[in-house]
Write a structure and sequence with these properties.
It is a single chain. By secondary structure, the chain is an alpha+beta fold. It has three domains: 122 residues, Glutaredoxin, CATH 3.40.30.10; 346 residues, no CATH class; 51 residues. It has a seven-stranded mixed β-sheet with strand order 7-6-8-9-23-22-20.
Length: 733
């Protein structure tokens, strides 16, 4: 019985163990199966994420100025694509590039990849390796892609490595643009080079500007034509987008109907006929841009600024050009301006470079050097609200005594330096300044009782203002601040600036308008009178009158003679009056064919709205100033002239495609240890010394501070552990 019970218990235990083992094995199998299913599902989810991510990308640019994001200019151009834009990239393998070019390849690849993503199927990139195929290398030579040949070698050999990194953009299979070499260090540089090329292949035709120029005179000039404005017109970034046509016709023909904008570079010696051509152009709806100068100053050796003859109106002219502009609502005063506010002409960083500057030569122990000096005739508009310093200006003008009434009046009158929201000034507002002007002149709106007095149907606004410390005067014969005696330069310059400082204190506060824009309908300046005739018409009329006078004199002489007895009376008549008219000679026929078509009747009122833009300076676009001809001799140099010119053309053409790109200014991330925007009277060596002291202090701080932090941390740990030990010992006792 006992054995049977023991046997039964043993069987029961074995059966339970078997069931337990079976249950455990089943559980292990189920866990493995669940794990496998989870792995498969996870792989499926990850595969879906990868699949979706390859087709839908999300980029987040965390930089404050969106440094790695494409601007609206590029996005707008890509959105206008109605045909395929093919980007042919002629690249050498990245792994074979030198270190200096390898990083630029990464930038280019990322930029091109983003173009493809934003193009949404309308942008394709094809990559070619010219080094692997001679046919591709030959094609590069034909289309204009240029290689970069880098020289290398050892002590016993010299080698040349050829690398390729160029692009060709083909739009719709017909229009193309080649970028021979490109090596951007950042996405911003890649966009600045490639986006304008996309704009070029998208443009159906170039916008055309007409221009008239009157070259400036230079002392001892080499070129017979004088100094003109050809550099800004022929600049690559401008010439590839705009076409310029010289319409300064000696015969004074009316401008073609397909011309919409006329640029006048320093107009002078204007005839009544030229004024009439301008008048009719505005009345037909054209835009006239005047780069005006009150005087012309030639730049001679040692910066001798000598006034040259400049007459706005030609000899014998019956109409004044200033009166013509005044009839359109523009007040141009032929005065030279000097801005006495240091913010308007002092550089922000005198160590790294000046802006509109004039450097005065100084003799030191190391030889002659140049120091930036205060020359208020070279200045720029400041992007700030001048009404905020009305109290300081009033106190200055009142001999240092506060005057609440004058300050309150100035608060109402003073305008910001850049009051316009036009995209033309978007970049300059980020710079905190306007373009630099040189001996500028006063151009504003016609006033009546301190209010704008514009013609009926016209509107206008001032786009640039000087500071309230501007001085206006008749153009002096000489504005040389240093004289010819090199031994007395400092004394002469001190007297020059001292006179201006005295005038700043004694003359009333005033702001000068520097740029004005007037639009609308106008009445003809020549209404009520006879239109000025063309020179050829005047000559033709004079020749006809002379012929008529000669014929009249001949007829009178013949009428006084009596025919001889028996003579035929018809024999006394001119032979050409008898019989058919003689055939015309080829010369006469060519002269008649070359005669211009009769002019239409003069417009007395605008056919459609026109526009006039007057800028109070022409020197900032002169060839010699924009090229930096006088940079090494102390200035002047128009640093921002080309930037303003390029954006001015976009503004006039109302081309906003590249606005966001042009107005993009990278943030300067350099550490500013000292404020280098010191006054013009300060010695730059003071700023240099302050920078050296600050740098030395920071270096010491970098060495001492980590040690102090580690010491403080060690002390904290020591005191915490000692407190814990004391608490533990106290608990045992």
């Amino acid at each position: 019985m006992v054995r049977q019970l023991h046997r039964t218990a043993t069987v029961t235990i074995q059966t339970g163990a078997a069931k337990t083992h079976s249950r455990a094995a089943h559980a292990q199998f189920g866990a493995a199966l669940a794990l496998a299913v989870h792995v498969l599902l996870l792989a499926a989810v990850l595969g879906q994420i990868v699949f979706l991510a390859s087709r839908h990308r999300v980029r987040v640019d965390l930089t404050s100025d969106q440094m790695y994001s494409l601007t609206e200019s590029t996005r707008t151009l890509l959105g206008r694509l109605d045909k395929q834009l093919l980007v042919e990239a002629y690249f050498s393998p990245k792994e074979k590039l030198p270190v200096t070019l390898r990083d630029t390849r990464v930038v280019l690849d990322n930029f091109l990849d983003e173009l493809v993503q934003l193009g949404k199927g309308r942008v394709a990139v094809q990559r070619f390796d010219p080094n692997s195929d001679k046919a591709i290398a030959d094609k590069c030579q034909r289309i204009g892609v240029q290689p970069a040949d880098l020289r290398g070698g050892t002590a016993t050999s010299v080698s040349f490595d050829r690398h390729w990194q160029g692009l060709r953009l083909v739009y719709g299979g017909s229009k193309q643009k080649v970028i021979p070499q490109i090596g951007p260090q950042s996405s911003f540089q890649a966009e600045a080079a490639i986006t304008p090329a996309i704009k070029e292949v998208l443009s159906a035709q170039k916008h055309k500007f007409g221009y008239m120029e009157w070259p400036a005179t230079a002392i001892g000039q080499q070129q017979p034509g004088g100094i003109g404005w050809n550099v800004v017109r022929s600049a690559e970034d401008v010439a590839k987008r705009y076409e310029f046509q010289n319409v300064k016709d000696e015969d004074g023909a009316l401008l073609a109907d397909d011309l919409t904008t006329l640029l006048l570079f320093r107009p002078k010696d204007l005839t009544d006929r030229q004024k009439y051509v301008i008048d009719q152009f505005v009345l037909k709806g054209g835009t006239v841009v005047v780069f005006a100068d009150a005087a012309e100053y030639a730049i001679g050796p040692n910066r001798m600024f000598t006034k040259m003859p400049l007459q706005l109106d030609a000899a014998g002219s019956q109409k004044r050009f200033q009166d013509q502009l005044l009839s359109y609502g523009i007040d141009w005063r032929q005065k030279v301006l000097a801005d006495m506010s240091p913010e308007a002409f002092s550089p922000r960083d005198r160590i790294q470079g000046a802006q509109e500057y004039l450097a005065v030569p100084q003799q030191t122990m190391f030889g002659r050097s140049y120091a930036v000096a205060a020359y208020p005739y070279f200045f720029h508009a400041v992007a700030g609200d001048w009404s905020k310093i009305a109290e300081q200006v009033a106190q200055l003008k009142q001999g240092g005594q506060p005057n609440a009434a004058v300050a309150e009046q100035l608060k109402r009158q003073l305008q910001p330096g850049l009051p316009s929201d036009e995209f033309l000034f978007k970049t300059f507002k980020q710079f905190g300044r306007g373009p630099g002007f040189y001996w500028p002149t006063w151009v504003g709106l016609r006033q009546k009782l301190d209010q704008p007095d514009l013609p009926e149907g016209a509107t206008g606004k001032v786009l640039l203002w000087s500071s309230p410390l501007v001085l206006a005067e008749e153009p002096p014969q000489n504005l040389d601040p240093i004289g010819r005696d090199m031994a007395r330069i400092n004394e002469t310059f001190g007297k020059f600036v001292g006179k201006l400082e005295e005038r700043k204190k004694s003359e009333p506060a005033q702001q000068a308008p520097l740029m004005v824009d007037v639009r609308g309908t106008f009445a003809s300046f020549f209404a009520g009178g006879e239109r000025p005739k063309r020179p050829s018409e005047i000559k033709e009329a004079e020749a006809k009158k002379a012929a008529d006078d000669a014929a009249a004199d001949g007829k009178a002489a013949k009428d006084g003679e009596k025919p001889a007895d028996g003579a035929d009376p018809l024999a006394a008549k001119p032979k050409d009056l008898i019989g058919p008219e003689a055939p015309k000679s080829p010369e006469e026929m060519d002269a008649e064919a070359s005669k211009p078509a009769p002019e239409p009747e003069p417009l007395l009122r605008s056919a459609k709205p026109g526009r006039l833009v007057v800028i109070g300076d022409a020197d900032f676009l002169r060839d010699d100033l924009v090229q930096g001809t006088y940079a090494e001799a102390g200035g002047p140099v128009s640093i921002f002239g080309r930037v303003f010119w390029a954006q001015l053309l976009d503004w006039l053409a109302e081309d906003k495609d590249l606005v966001a790109l042009q107005s993009r200014v990278p943030v300067d991330r350099a550490l500013k240890f000292v404020d280098t925007a010191v006054g013009t009277s300060a010695d730059p060596r003071v700023a240099e010394q302050a920078l050296a002291n600050t740098t030395r202090w920071l270096r010491g701080l970098n060495i001492v501070l980590p040690g102090l932090l580690l010491t403080a941390f060690g002390l904290c740990v020591f005191f915490v552990r000692r407190a814990q030990k004391r608490a533990f010992l106290a608990s045992l006792s």
